[in-house]
Design a protein that fits this description.
11 helices; single chain; disordered C terminus; six-stranded mixed β-sheet
């Protein structure tokens, strides 16, 4: 494990653009798949139902998080992934991890907000005791220290209105999850590298197609459409 003096150094070292450029496209692909499914006139009676807004966020979250499961990820993806049980009601989430960091994906109300508080998220946030971890070692320069320690905790938050994803942020919460220590807007930072939503959608076409087939099969939408 490596120690970092603060959240800024953590993100710069662990999640530079060469890493985040492999994460952000999966959010774009999930959003594209969502729109292609819900805008398909074949299934309009389902997705234009007055009750559909109750399920909108769940469908979007599934289409995003599904891509982070091991069978969907490219072999070059820089993280391992596992399914984490987050409460006693069977709710599960994706956890991305490597030696120094663990990441949870969560929806947020806006780009300057942490996701909703929960017991497991607050518990994980106490991994971000930057000063306390440093004080364990009497050394002026910690940049190259490697120790047996706990990883740091990071959120991948996303959100938007209705059928769009307006932001995808890397957020480092403080210990206790009461404020944000550091935030990086992936959409803005990657725009400097001339990424576009259209070009990303083309490179992620295989994922988009697979996601659409899975949802249609799981919801038995083809049978629903044939009955109209």
């Amino acid at each position: 494990m490596k120690l970092y003096k603060d959240a800024d150094e953590l993100l710069k070292r662990e999640l530079p653009p060469r890493i985040t450029s492999q994460i952000y496209p999966l959010f774009v692909a999930g959003n594209v798949a969502y729109n292609q499914i819900t805008n398909n006139q074949k299934y309009k009676n389902i997705f234009h139902s007055e009750l559909f807004p109750n399920a909108r966020a769940h469908l979007m979250n599934f289409l995003i998080c599904r891509q982070f499961e091991q069978d969907m990820l490219k072999t070059s993806f820089p993280f391992d992934a596992r399914i984490l049980k987050v409460n006693n009601f069977g709710r599960k989430n994706i956890e991305l991890f490597k030696e120094n960091i663990v990441i949870h994906i969560a929806k947020a109300k806006d780009e300057d907000s942490l996701p909703s508080r929960s017991g497991y998220r607050e518990s994980y946030s106490y991994l971000n005791r930057f000063l306390e971890k440093q004080l364990m070692f009497s050394c002026d320069d910690i940049k190259n220290i490697s120790v047996d320690s706990e990883p740091y905790y990071i959120f991948l938050t996303y959100g938007g209105k209705d059928n769009t994803i307006d932001f995808v942020n890397l957020i480092v919460p403080n210990a206790g999850m009461t404020n944000i220590l550091k935030k990086v807007n992936l959409k803005e930072s990657l725009s400097l590298f001339k990424f576009s939503e259209e070009s990303i959608a083309k490179t992620e076409e295989k994922n988009i197609t697979k996601l659409k087939k899975e949802v249609i099969k799981k919801l038995n939408l083809d049978a629903e459409g044939e009955n109209k």
